[in-house]
DNA sequence: GTAGGGTTAG
């Protein structure tokens, strides 16, 4: 509404707005008519006006001829202006209305109410909700009584702007004014309460209605759908049909959308069959709803057939198909539709561009993304937040962080999605520092912001920081969802922090967080990595749906504790249940065989990959077999296997072989391997370290020195051993021989005590594990400071009596630490659990669960 | 007159 002037005259006819098309020739004829016969026939020509310019022309004509003072003509002109729905036309309508009120001060109240209603409706339809409600208030102040048309119009404005209280006040007023039985008013109230989330209130109004029509039912169905109560919405539809009320197109669209949200294609089909049989007109909107439903339910073929068979492929239908392809990760297909649209279809709008930009982002197609950006700018679509945000996302996903930042900086209306998109962009580019800075700088954060930042930290291995951030999130009163918990579970798993893992699991239960397949798999994997296969299997058994990833996590949980037989049983059960195995599950199950020494079974599975499951083994699977044979001491077989591989063996293959040579102290074969490796380009640090270790074990210090020099020349650095231990939710990390750790004096003292007690029990350090050319005393000292020993000592001091000491080691533990842990478990009567980079070792009463086979 | 379709970030 404008309150600038009361003058109600149109602009001179020459001042044609650039946005308006030139008046058609038929209008010129009207202009040239000299005199109208009577006011009514003159206003009749208003009906055929198609655009604002034509109305303005007639307005000018009426003014010139003095007809503007005629209340009937003025009323029709105001209504016509309001129906155009542009801000300019609404301004004219309002000015006209002011003039009307002035001229009919003592006059016709029914016409005034009629005009109030028209303007309230027009403003509501044009999303000028405040103006709409203010007009209603103005109407009351001016002493006009709202009628049964006023309430639906103003309630609609309240619903669309989610003004629950105002709507409830209108409810009272409507009852007071005697509209408690009016079906239009009551339908509007059902809709209003449903829109504002007060579904019980909507149901109450609905239940108390003396009579209900199809709109009443449809309004309630929509209310349920809005609250994501899609099942209830569909039930209500069938209830309606049983009551003998025939649905119309609007009802069908609402219920089909509910089926889409449920992803229930059978239900969608039932509704769709109902539409076909009931003889309803299947208009554009119904077709679109059906296409959307089938796409959402994964019945892409059905959707595509409907689309192909539709003669009226309007803009929304194209957009529906494209956005659904994008959601399904089929960016290329979305772009195919876009090409068809450019050739045959309507002009793309901003929603179309959103799908195209998202597609180019998914494909990392920077060129297409740039073209889209240019199109957006050429067509003035850049002011829509969603478009700006998707452009940021597109540049970020294409690795153009600077361009993403530039678009972000230039955005005048940054929303939380803009910040989150940029944040996710930093994550993808591995710029954790910038991401954290941006996160701390954000004016507001929502669940997605927290989830993004936590996921970034997990992705880049900052597990403790991720857990810390999760705690901050809770302190800010934000409730986590299943996306958060997937990251948290993953962090716990990598940290091997069992107490934290248990707490995480309880958190999911306590807060009723929906445990979908992804979260189920993450929790199962978490327990597996924390060495608690029982809890892992408990989660696995409660999972309703299990895909190959879930089965892999379960098999992995078994593999890491050396339970090869159960891992194999799970694998066979998976195949029995028609879950198609992939490459990952094969490497997991082969690893399980390797840790349990199941050579025959492992070879059988490896051979079945190609024959039975049509999967060509990857180099990783060959590595598993080398490991399987090597660990079992079948070194000659392992070397033959390597020689007969269809591809060039890589570092991992030689690593597995050399590792086996080291376990079985076979220096001869290691030498042979060394010769082959030196001829190839395999210079991986792991291999060189293993080689130097093998030579060192055999006391060949000259060879050790050669390898070390070679490593130095190549800039290779041995990864430092480190062990961590969780205590009261905090993860403490120890590195070999590091004096600067907190509580290190006490830990060193404890370690000394342990060594004395162990010596008394007959423990002799295995000096072969010290791979440096130093004297025996020094070797003994170095060996005593291995990180897992420090962690065990710290664990014994800090944790309660009888509690297991759980340590996570980043490398494979050495045989001396293994013997040490066995003795500690006996002498101190404590369970010691160590996860090294291979598997779990559970030490109890002097022996280990791996039976010294690892 | 009241009720309906496509919309970005984890």
From TrEMBL:
DYW domain location: 762-854
GO molecular function: RNA binding; zinc ion binding
Residues in PPR repeats: 182-212, 213-247, 314-348, 415-449, 547-581, 582-612
Biological process (GO), any one: RNA modification
Chain segments carrying region Disordered: 1-25
InterPro entries for this protein: DYW_dom (IPR032867), E_motif (IPR046848), PPR_At4g14850-like_plant (IPR046960), PPR_rpt (IPR002885), TPR-like_helical_dom_sf (IPR011990), TPR_rpt (IPR019734)
Repeat is among the record's keywords: yes
UniProtKB keywords: Repeat, TPR repeat
Alphabetical list of Pfam families matching this protein: DYW_deaminase, E_motif, PPR, PPR_2
TPR repeats: 315-348
Similarity comment: family membership: Belongs to the PPR family. PCMP-H subfamily.
Protein name from the UniProt record: DYW domain-containing protein
Organism of provenance: Buddleja alternifolia
